[in-house]
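Supplementary Text 2. Reproducibility record for the structural model of the 148-residue chain.

All settings were left at their defaults, and a single model was retained for analysis rather than an ensemble. We include the record here because the model underlies the residue-level annotations in Supplementary Table 4.
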Amino acid sequence: MEQATATQPQALHPDPARASEMPYAPAVEVPAGGVIVFISGATASPLYHQHPHVPAEHVQPDDIREQTRRALDSIKLVLDARGLDWRHVVKATKYLTDMREADAMHEVWREYFGDWQPASTMICVNNLSSPGARVELDLIAVGPPSTA
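Retained model, structure tokens:
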């Protein structure tokens, strides 16, 4: 088990030799004193859009990889606004409308997260917030104490 430093969350693997077999960590240890950022679910729709929904703002690409990229790009805007990066993400919930697309979604996920594996849950659902959305991601990140 890795020890968390004063500023960075650390993955907890009961069997560290097998960590590379998984796209997530069984658990993540968070150092005390940080700021917790709860990031709302993101789809391929723009981060900022009208409510009630305007259909033209929610035209979804058919490709799960592109939908995943767009969702992660929106999440990156939130992380950047707080000065955080993917390494600060400690928990993710991944909603898919077709579990058979999980490997393709994780392929893109690794482009963003590299070798960092936050704790994660994946759920298959019938529908998401906009027609044609096939993936939605919500995350929890922990950063250093706020200086504001």
